[in-house]
Amino acid sequence: MEISESTKVVFYVSRIFGLAPYVVKRTPIGQIVDYKRSVFLIVYSVGLVFCLAGLTYKGIFFDVTSKKPIRMKTATSKVVTILDVSVVVSACICGTLSGIGGLHFVRELNRRLTEADEILSLYVKESTRSRRQQRKGILMLGLVCFIITGALSLDIWVWYRIADKIKKENSNSSANVLGYFPFYCLYYILMMFHVLFAQAALGIGNRFRHLNVALYEMFPEFGRTPRIEISSINLDSDKNNPIDVDLRKCVANVAHGFDRKRTLSSRKIIEDLAVIHASLSYCIVTFGIALLAVLGSCLLHLVATSYFLMVELVGDKDAVFAWIQALWLFIHIFRFLLTIEPCHITNVESNRTITIINSLRRTCKDVEMIESINMFWQQLIASNFSFTACGLCTIDRRIITSYCGAIATYLVILIQFKEADDNSGKTPH
Question: Which coarse location class describes where this protein primarily resides (predicted)?
Answer without folding.
Answer: membrane
